[in-house]
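Hi support team,

I've been running sequence recovery on a batch of backbones for a student project. Most finish fine, but this one hangs at about 90% for roughly twenty minutes before it completes. I'm not sure whether the input is malformed or the queue is just slow. I've pasted the C-alpha cells below so you can try to reproduce it. Let me know if you need the job ID as well.

Thanks,
M.K.
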C-alpha cells in the first residue's frame, strides 16, 4: 500500500487473493533478515512509514498513538504478526509489513497490512521479500482462506506487485470498514499505469 507517487488522487482499492501464486515468492537473501516486532520497535515502524510517505503532516507522538491504538491491544498478537526487514550489513530496518486480520460478515479474514519500504531500498526486491513472508505466514495459519489488502492508485507499482502474487482488484468486495471505490480508482490507474500493465490488471478484476 505504500509505494507512493505524489499528486495522484486518492481512491480506495480493495484487492483479494483467492489463490496464492507461489511462483512470485522471493526468499530472504543472506544480506537481509526478517525480525519480529518487540516493544522497542514502535519508533522503527513509525520511521519506516514516514519515510515511505505515510503520515505527512503528523507529529511523531500522533503516529505512535495511532500505532498503539491499531496494533497494540489485548489479543492482537502483534509480536507474532508484525515483521520488519533488516539489512544485516549495517543493521538498519528497511521495511515492514503485518499479517493482520479484519472482520468480514462476522468472521475474521486475513489481511496483508501496512507494507512499507524506505525509498533507498525500493526496486531491490525488499517488498517482494516481505510479501512472501506474510503470505507464507497465512499459508501456515489460515489454510485456504482468501486474503485481502487495501491500497490506492498512488501505489500503482505495488498493485502490479500484488497482482504477481495472485491479488486481484475487486469491483464490490470489501472487509472491515474499508470502502471500495472501484470505478474512480480504475480511471486513475488508467492514467498512471503502463498500458500493458493496466490491461493485465483489468483482465484479472473480480467481483
Amino acid at each position: 500500500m505504500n509505494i507512493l507517487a505524489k499528486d495522484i488522487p486518492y481512491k480506495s482499492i480493495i484487492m483479494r487473493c483467492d489463490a496464492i501464486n507461489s511462483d512470485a515468492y522471493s526468499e530472504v537473501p543472506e544480506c537481509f533478515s526478517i525480525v519480529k516486532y518487540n516493544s522497542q520497535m514502535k519508533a522503527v515502524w513509525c520511521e519506516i512509514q514516514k519515510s515511505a510517505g505515510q503520515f505527512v503532516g503528523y507529529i511523531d507522538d500522533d503516529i505512535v498513538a495511532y500505532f498503539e491504538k491499531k496494533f497494540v491491544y489485548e489479543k492482537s498478537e502483534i509480536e507474532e504478526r508484525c515483521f520488519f526487514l533488516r539489512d544485516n550489513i549495517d543493521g538498519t530496518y528497511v521495511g515492514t509489513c503485518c499479517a493482520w486480520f479484519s472482520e468480514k460478515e462476522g468472521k475474521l479474514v486475513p489481511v496483508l497490512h501496512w507494507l512499507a519500504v524506505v525509498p533507498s531500498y525500493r526496486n531491490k526486491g525488499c517488498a517482494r521479500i516481505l510479501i512472501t513472508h506474510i503470505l507464507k505466514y497465512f499459508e501456515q495459519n489460515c489454510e485456504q482462506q482468501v486474503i485481502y489488502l487495501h491500497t490506492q492508485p498512488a501505489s500503482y507499482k505495488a498493485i502490479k506487485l500484488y497482482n504477481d502474487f495472485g491479488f486481484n482488484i475487486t469491483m464490490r468486495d470489501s472487509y472491515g470498514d474499508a470502502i471500495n471505490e472501484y470505478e474512480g480508482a480504475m480511471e486513475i490507474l488508467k492514467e498512471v499505469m503502463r498500458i500493458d500493465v493496466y490491461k493485465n490488471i483489468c483482465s484479472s478484476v473480480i467481483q
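--
Follow-up from support: It reproduced on our side and the slowdown came from queue contention, not your input. Strands lie at 13-17, 32-36, 82-87, 93-104, 107-117, 147-151, 167-169. No action needed from you.
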